[in-house]
Amino acid sequence: MLTPRVLVTAAAEATIDALRDEHGPLMFHQSGGCCDGSSPMCFPAGEFRVGANDVWLGRIHGCNFFMSAAQFEYWKHTQLTVDVTKGRGASFSLEIPLGVRFLIRSRLFTEAEEQYMAPVYDGEAYLTRPAEA
């Protein structure tokens, strides 16, 4: 079994469900430090343009999750878990009007996990790959 690079808590899944009901399909991009620090930002799918300078890390609760390639170089040995907490962040992410904000909890992969890492794709390659890839 492949080691996932990004996970999601049940609380964050409930928030994603509420946002999906209102906005339709969603995507995430891990902020690299502007606005709310380094927070996962939620957008309607396709609203945030990703390309070759972004990395696709996986899917959480049906949503693609991306981050910049430069940031991935620092975080590639870290498993990310998207969670949610009360409080308004200072970002453009969709959950902000709900009085909550997404956040990242992280931990380093074990040596055993690193042997079976899920693949990553640059954002441009991911968006143009065949559906079965």
From TrEMBL:
InterPro entries: DUF779. It comes from the Bacteria. This is DUF779 domain-containing protein. It comes from Hymenobacter busanensis.
